[in-house]
Design brief:
single chain, Immunoglobulin-like, 3-stranded antiparallel beta sheet, 11 strands
Length: 108
């Protein structure tokens, strides 16, 4: 099961927080220039880093995918952090309109 499910026309902001080995929240930001977001298959997504290293945006590009794992890595005060992961699915958005396609005209 995915951590995040997007329609093929959606995007989501992912907030980044830090924790110690006991999983206790620690204030701080990932070092500038060290944030990396990679996907098992990057084609279905466009990733944009936030203004600082506290978030990033994942935009679905219209390609359907399932169980596509994003791995987020970086460092804090020069020390590499254990990467975090999220699993993404991209699904078809629900219908919002009716489209009509005429056939080829035929003689009566």
């Amino acid at each position: 099961m995915a951590d995040v499910t997007l329609n093929e026309n959606q995007n989501v902001e992912v907030r980044i927080s830090l924790a110690n080995s006991s999983n206790v929240a620690v204030a701080g930001l990932i070092d500038a220039g060290t944030l990396s977001v990679t996907f098992t298959d990057p084609a279905p997504f466009t990733v944009t880093d936030g203004a600082d290293t506290s978030s990033f945006n994942v935009k679905a590009n219209g390609t359907l995918t399932s169980a596509n794992v994003a791995t987020v890595s970086g460092s804090f005060n020069g020390v590499p952090l254990t990467p975090g992961t999220l699993t993404f699915d991209v699904v078809v958005a629900p219908p919002t309109q009716i489209t009509l396609t005429p056939g080829t005209p035929a003689n009566n």
